[in-house]
Design goal:
27% of the residues lie in helices and 27% in strands. The protein is of the alpha/beta class. Helix 1 packs across helix 4. It is globular and about 50 Å long. About 2% of the residues have low confidence.
């Protein structure tokens, strides 16, 4: 059975200022997602599942269905505020989405095989999808997941802070812990993150998760139980988010699971801010020039 690619595309793009998920960056107007899907098809993935919001579903499907038809199976799942709450109700005053872990849970009815999860607005590179496919086909099981890991220094934006899941690994490259740092940036010759206790330095070569995870389908029941408890615990915290690293942490600590951190040689780049867009476009142009991708992905 071929693995599935789950793309998290329901974000509001608040920092970027527009619907960056469908903005064209390639020579023929390709989105960042197009390159991820193209790499996934080459690596042997059999289906792509898009997590989107209902209010932009029509335009989204009109963008992707014509070019993907006959090339890979597609499914669309909606992440709504009241999805999968397990009998709870949306807390009064909450407008913020529940987060990436909740997005995964929204796909539980359409995924029955090992799968990878990625962000819509991150360019991961060919090597990442090859390594993910090898893992999902050969090593993924109910007790073994993985993260495609990148060096922190190669994942920053010059135009503002970024969020990264900073990984601590053991001698066998197994994940010990992952901590979501929501304000990371370069400061002089150092990299720092900020939290309520102030600034803290982080090593340049720290392995980080760029939300490229590889999971077994048995993840869903555990995630559902965890999310229901999260909702109950955060009734009065209307900005709390259920991040994927919370699921990974629970898997390692209470499910006796192992998460492999698989190093990736691809250069990551992404669009967090509008100012990042020209850099991404130039990077893609260079890859096309070097014949890593065709001038028109779907021609």
């Amino acid at each position: 059975m071929q693995p599935t690619l789950l793309i998290l595309a329901a974000g509001m793009a608040s920092r970027y200022g527009s619907m960056k998920q469908t903005e064209g960056f390639g020579p023929a107007g390709e989105t960042i997602m197009d390159y991820s899907i193209y790499d996934a098809i080459r690596a042997g993935f059999g289906k792509v599942v898009f997590i989107i919001r209902k209010d932009f579903a029509e335009g989204f499907k009109n963008t992707f269905e014509p070019k993907l038809k006959g090339k890979i199976k597609t499914e669309y799942v909606y992440q709504e505020m009241d999805s999968h709450l397990g009998g709870s109700t949306v807390p009064e005053g909450r407008t913020k989405p529940w987060g990436t872990g909740h997005a995964i849970l929204c796909a539980k009815d359409v995924i029955n095989e090992p799968f990878a999860v990625i962000n819509a607005d991150d360019f991961y590179g060919t090597d990442a999808f090859v390594k993910a496919a090898v893992f999902l086909n050969n090593d993924c099981n109910a007790k073994t997941y993985s993260i495609i890991g990148y060096e922190l220094a190669k994942t920053l934006s010059e135009h503002g802070t970024v969020s990264r899941g900073v990984c601590q690994v053991d001698a066998n490259s197994n994940l010990v812990s992952i901590t979501e740092r929501t304000k990371i940036y370069r400061e002089g010759d150092t990299i720092v993150y900020e939290d309520e206790d102030g600034k803290h330095e982080v090593p340049f070569d720290s392995p980080v998760s760029m939300n490229f995870w590889c999971f077994h389908q048995s993840l869903f029941p555990v995630t559902e139980k965890l999310f229901h408890q999260f909702v109950k615990d955060n009734t009065h915290n209307i900005k709390a988010e259920f991040f994927i690293p919370l699921i990974g942490d629970e898997f390692v600590k209470t499910q006796d699971g192992t998460i492999k951190v698989i190093p990736c040689s691809s250069q990551w780049f992404g669009v967090t801010y509008k100012e990042d867009a020209p850099v991404v476009k130039a990077s893609i142009d260079k890859l096309v020039e070097d014949k890593e991708y065709p001038d028109n992905l779907w021609a």
